[in-house]
Every structure is written in C-alpha cells, then in structure tokens.
Specification:
This protein has 22 helices and no strands. The protein has 406 residues and is mainly α. The chain has 2 domains: 95 residues, no CATH class; 263 residues, no CATH class. Helix 8 runs antiparallel to helix 20, helix 14 packs across helix 19 and helix 15 runs antiparallel to helix 22. It is elongated, with a radius of gyration of 29 Å. It starts with 7 loop residues before the first helix and ends with a helix.
Length: 406
C-alpha cells in the first residue's frame, strides 16, 4: 500500500538515501543528514552527527593500534555495529520522511501558485478578477485568521479552508483538480455579473459616501467589551441601518452570482460552503452580537424587525453601489430573511463563546493594546472581511455553476 498519493514508484525513488547506509560503514551518516536537511527534521540531522561521531572515534582508535596488531573487540564493534543499526534506522524513518517530503513539495507548489497568481494580478494579466481579489489575502493576515477563528465557534460551520485563487476554490468544492471545471469557472469569473458582485463585496467594507459602514468585527468587538449596554435595533439605529444595508448587498450578490429562480438561487447559495460562511458571519457578527437583546426578547422574525428599523435601503444601496439595480436584490431579500432567521436560531446558543472569542482575538489579531472606540474602529475598519468572504463566495459560486453546467 502506498504511503502517499504519489504512488510506490515515486516513494521508492525518493528512498534512494537508504543506499547510503550500505557504504561499508562509512557513509550511513549521510542518509540522516540528507533526510533531515531535506525535510527540516533536525533530530535526524542529530542522528547523522552521532553516526559520524562513531566513525571518527573508530578512525581515532584504529590509528592508535600498532601496525600488525589486530583490532580489539571494541574497535571492531565501532566499525560493524552502527552499520546494520543505521540500515534498520533508515527504514524506520522512511514512512515519516516520505510524508514530510510529500507535504513539503505540495507546500512548494501552493507557494509557487500563489506567487504566480500575485504576479499576474500585479501586471494586469490575471485570468479573472476573483484571483486578483483573493491573492491579496495571505494565510497569516488578520482578516483570514479572525475569520477562521470565528467560524470555529459554530460546530455546524463548514471546515474553513484557506485558498487564494479559483484553483483553491475548485479543490474545496469539487474535492479535485478537474481542469474542465477550472476552465469553465474561469470563464464564469469574467462575466459582468461576477464583477458586479465583487464590486459590492469590496465597497461594503468602506465608509463610502459618508455612510460610515464599519466592518462587522467592530460591532461585535464593541458588543463583547460593553456587555451591560442596551443592544437593540432601537438603541443603535446607525448600526441597524448598516446591518440592513449589508443584507441588501448580500442579497444582490446572491442574485447576480447564481442562476435560476429565487428559490434556486437561495438553494445554491446555502449549498456553497462560502455561502454558509458569509451567512454565518452576517448572522453572528452583524446581528447576534450587536443586537443580543433582540434575540433574547423576541422569538423570531428578527430580520423583519431589523429591516423595519434600518431606513431606506434602496437609496442607501444605490448611494454606495452606484447604478447597480436594487430590484435584483429585493426578491432575494424576502427569501433570505427567513433563512437568516433560521441561522440566527442556530447561532443563538453560541452567543457567549462567540462573545468571548471576539473579545479575546480582536486586540491580538490587530496588535492594539486599548479598547477605546476610536482605536478599535480605526484598526478594525481596515479589515476587509466582506471583500474576503465575498471573493470566496464569488469563486465557489463559479465552481458550483461549472460543476452543474448552469
């Protein structure tokens, strides 16, 4: 049975280092230097040092023996003893070495792929705008790390997987690297509808046109730190207005990214892992934490209440999204309200761990020491969660459509 997905032929070819243990007891240390340095496993390098030390000591003892005098048992043991031990040792580490080498090579491919995507984006020769949007987010970025940690609170959230281009989206959704699916997804990624969705996802993070649209994490952080303040739609109308506007923006993205009727669009959206993620982010961070009292006091219809308090979504949406039509979002919004209410019902039992997670991770992720409103707002406003999650949604929507031929 093969140890890796690369097959037995590759595995035995990479196991050539075992031959070094057959060099008449003088080269076995090289096998451990090679495997240790190739995989950054410094314990194996240390073993190689031990075997080399035994060879050096053998040579030293042998030089002390007068000419014509036979070697004593200890000297002979120093020569022959490590030889079979090193040979067996090389086989023992073979499985781990092959796994580490496979992982390192895969990591190298991913790093090369990211560099290639980034260069193409910088020089304007990228295959699609989705790659250009996602490649800006490194796995170590605060936006990515905070998103991953937030989703970890909910046991029903999809397993978070980082990727930076359409190739990664194909691997996540299709669980393969099908070239046909990737090619079709790239074609869809260049459509006008996808570009509009990406635009909305990007500008929703910005304080555009004086609307003061702060990232959801700011709202969540303030709610987590100020547990005693009243948290209702009525008590914070500006925050409610921003949450309502983001509901419209999300509805518009769903309308443009997915084909078919309104029920078909919503079904595909919630079947998309990134769709489940952005819905959870919206429900948990934009509504549940900032408006905890609404969730506690009422038994449902939270979205209807929120939108009733959020003002004129149509004019606000047109103000920051330009000429993008509001009508496309209206019908989706009606269906989305019920889905988000269901998501809020599932999120509600996890409010305390979610609040604790936000309070713990926000200062660390953003390298800020104080929690004053100004400092937090300034730091968190630059974290483009909607651009990141919206880019992933656009990528996976294209993959879903490519897989289903729609």
């Amino acid at each position: 049975m093969a140890i890796t997905d690369r097959g037995k032929s590759w595995e035995w070819f990479q196991s050539w280092y075992i031959i070094l243990t057959l060099g008449f007891g003088m080269t076995h240390f090289l096998a451990f230097f090679y495997t240790g340095l190739r995989t950054a496993k410094w314990l194996w390098v240390a073993f190689g040092g031990v075997y080399l030390g035994l060879i050096i000591y053998f040579i030293h003892r042998a030089n002390q023996i007068p000419t014509g005098t036979p070697m004593d048992g200890t000297t002979v043991l120093l020569w022959f003893g490590p030889w079979p031990i090193a040979f067996i040792h090389a086989f023992i580490i073979r499985k781990e070495f092959l796994m580490l080498l496979d992982a390192k090579l895969q990591r190298g491919v991913i790093q090369d792929d990211r560099l290639r995507t980034k260069i193409k984006a910088e020089y304007g020769v990228s295959h699609n705008k989705i790659d250009e949007a996602l490649v800006d987010f490194k796995e170590s970025d605060a936006t990515v790390r905070v998103s991953s940690m937030l989703f970890s609170v909910f046991p029903f959230s999809p397993q978070f997987e980082y990727y930076f281009n359409l190739n990664g989206a194909v691997r996540r959704v299709a669980r393969s690297e099908d070239p046909a699916i990737l090619q079709r997804a790239k074609e869809l990624a260049n459509s006008e509808d996808v570009l509009k969705a990406l635009k909305v996802a990007s500008v929703v993070d910005k304080a555009d046109g004086g609307l003061g649209i702060y990232t959801g994490i700011k709202n969540a952080y303030d709610a987590a730190k100020n547990k005693d303040r009243k948290r209702t739609f009525e008590a914070d109308p500006q925050q409610a207005a921003d949450a309502g506007l983001k509901a419209v923006a999300l509805s518009y993205m769903i309308a443009t990214l997915y084909p078919g009727s309104v029920p078909d669009k919503l079904k595909l959206f919630f079947e998309t892992p990134a769709g489940q993620e952005i819905a959870l982010f919206y429900a948990g961070v934009e509504i549940a934490l900032p408006f905890t009292d609404n969730l506690i006091e009422a038994s449902g219809n939270w979205m209807t209440q929120l939108l009733a308090k959020s003002g004129n979504e149509e004019s606000r949406f047109s103000e920051f999204a330009g000429s993008l039509p509001f009508e496309q979002a209206k019908s989706i919004l009606e269906g989305l309200k019920h889905q988000i209410d269901s998501t809020l019902t599932r999120v509600k039992p996890y409010l305390d761990p979610l609040r604790e997670k936000v309070a713990a991770i926000a200062p660390t992720a953003l390298n800020i020491a104080d929690s004053t409103t100004g400092a937090v707002a300034t730091a968190l406003d630059v974290m483009p969660f909607w651009k990141f999650l919206g880019g992933r949604l656009a990528a996976e929507a294209c993959v879903i459509r490519a897989m289903r031929g729609v």
